[in-house]
Amino acid sequence: RAESTKDTPATTPYNLSQYFKQFLFPQNECELHNFRLSFSQLKWDRWIIAPHRYSPQYCKGDCPRVVGHRYGSPVHTMVQNIIYEKLDPSVPRPSCVPAEYSPLSVLTIEPDGSIVYKEYEDMIATKCTCR
Amino acid sequence: PHSRGRGVSGEPSGSLVAPEDTAREFNPLWWLPKGVRRGYALLPPLLKVLSERGHQSWESEVPGLRPDSRALRYMKRLYKMSATREGIPKAHKSHLYNTVRLFTPCSECKHRHRDLMKGDIHSVDLLFNLDRVTALEHLLKSVLLYSFDTSVPISSSITCTCHLSTKEHDFSSPVCPSVSHSVAFSLHFEVRKRKWVEIDVTSFLQPLIATNRRDLHMAVNLTCLMGDPQQNTDLENPVNVALVPPSLLLYLNDTSEQAYHRWNSLRHRRKSPGQPRQRSSPPVDPAGEEGKENSQGKRASRRR
What we know:
A: alpha+beta; about 35% strand; B: alpha+beta; five-stranded antiparallel sheet
């Protein structure tokens, strides 16, 4: 505290709430956002018969500096944050990405006219994390 | 990931044409391992859209073969039974497949004759092209799917005898160029509002499909009579059914990474880090209280 007051010019009032602000969660914190599309928008409804609508969702937002268990983030995430802040700003901050998905069943028409029902893995984001 | 095994056809699946060398490095499809690249109905179009800058829509690429409307109706019904409206696969215990392919015969030469004694004989030669089945899709069940409109009064029972034989060119022995396996079996079913009759031919076709056969040539001979063999011995009144040549339905387990594996998702959920541990239900001791429950209780709990 003594050093910090020596460093900072006397004019800046040392403000505790200012100091803690940096630990608050960011306004637009990392979370799952809704997104719904219909295959007719992509003009794919001629070969994708079902489902008509598909909600892949997506993750967006800033990752708090001290992520801890909140996002199921490994310790590496905090290390990466420290590298970005203290050592090398060219190293990116942790990103807000999907952590879990659910599958999707699709009914499509193949080019040879046969019809296929398929269940695809990892087609709908269901949970976000900071990595 | 290394590509596991070859895709089936030499060409990438879907109607993607191998891009010229110049565009090759721009097409993300070519960076995928072969095993992933081919045989995937959904993947190539998604990648194609991503690799194209323009607004060209995929639909202009899909060549024309339109499926049979009855087949389409059946597959929509199967979709409704297998997935929710949002497209999430339903968790059925019996639902082991993650892929179902329906093939309509690419050519058939029908022979149809009536033999009053034997009823209405409907025999047809069918050729199915199975090019779309990838090497990573393993057969679980195969079914001949008959859809028929019949003038038979509702709630009468029909007994059909099906004689199935496949023809294959046995190049190893020039003497008898075509070898045919045949099987005959009878099936009895009630005609209610049923529009479909499924004839399970799994054991019969398994050896052929397991050898990655591309073309399946078979002759199907179906004789249908009214009545139930258990009740009256002499089956009379040949059923005048307008039989449409059957489609071939393959229930498959796709073992590639993109396909959804039920058992895998359970395992994955248990393993994923930072997951609040699922509170496991108290261990059911088969010999414990549960074991003593009487049959009604069991049935009721099962129904619940």
